[in-house]
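Form 7-S
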Amino acid sequence: MKKLFAISVLLLSFSLLLAGCSDNGEESSGEENADQITLDVIWFSDGNEGDVFKEITDQYTEENPDVTFNIIDTPYDDLLTRIRTRVSGGDAPDLARISGINHVQDALLDLTPYLDDKDAFLDQFSDVAIPTVVRDDAVYGIPTDLTAHGLFYNKEYFEQAGVEVPASPDDVWDWAEFEAALQQVSDNSDARFGLAYDLSPSRYSTLIYQNGGSIFSEDQTSLTVNEPASVEALEYFQELHEKELIPSSIWLGGENPNSLFRSGQAAMHLSGNWNVQNYEENADFDWGVTYMPEGTQRSSVAGGKQMVGFEDSEHKEAVADFLLYFASQEVNEQFVSESSFLSTRKDNAEIEYDVRSEEMKVFADELSVTSQIPTLDWENPNMPAVETLLTENVQKTLSGELNAQEAMDQIVENAEIE
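Output:
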């Protein structure tokens, strides 16, 4: 029996040895696990785009089975803290979705070595998107989606007042006509106010650019926000408040402009295309989107998000490959059309959206007439200090503490420009 048991053990050992040496896939399976890459992605969402991104990463994994994704959902307010903590702790993520590269630029992966032709790659994107990822000839990530400022309106109130909104880009209001339209709707409809205007220095700056002004000089080294075009923009904003066409409760009291529009108190809302999905789901009246007015020119302000990789990632090749995949025409179309963003790509200018496609096309048209100046201003590394002063001094003008010229002069005097 002892001999029989010993022979059995020997045969079993021999069988296991043969199995390990065979090419039935088990040994190679172990090697595949060793080669498996998991990319950590720090991600935030404004709406449903997180679900769309998950679809895209699943598709990528189907095509690249050795790469999977660990998506770390993060509140936007905690985004930079989480990224900086991981970078400083020697545990940089592989990828992240961000809304401006200035605060983390030193930690980012330069994509240039992974591009066959940098100029050809960048030429795929709209002019307003390129400054969001390019610094000193380096390409730090990809511009994934754009936002634009624009005008939502309550169709019932405009019908009550007998006011027609511009139906085409060739028929936009000038500032005086816009003010008159707001006054007529306020006086002749059930609306309490003409316009809810977001408490946002970015949204406010729309008026500066519509009037041909800028916040920084052309070379981005000094402030021009106190020049006549910008001062006139603030005077116009002040006038709309003094006539109570814009309720002071937003900029001076912190009232939610979305609530004012959604509850039927305001006939219009100057905000951005990110509210298309919001109002589609939550507004119980018939609304639309129309073209913004012009001062001396038409302009919106391009916002947007970027996907970036990190220099300390252990998987730079995989990171770069995914970023280029995410930037491709087909994948970008999927991402923006399903999540109601505007595309960064020139060849996706005419895509159809899953929600309110016609309204989204108005926002796209606003971007098509917007120069690079707003993007360059808002990508300026000095903007965080300036935007705080801009908000404070617009508020001081609305409250009567300063006049428009004084307010803008104080920004130039007090902003710490490096």
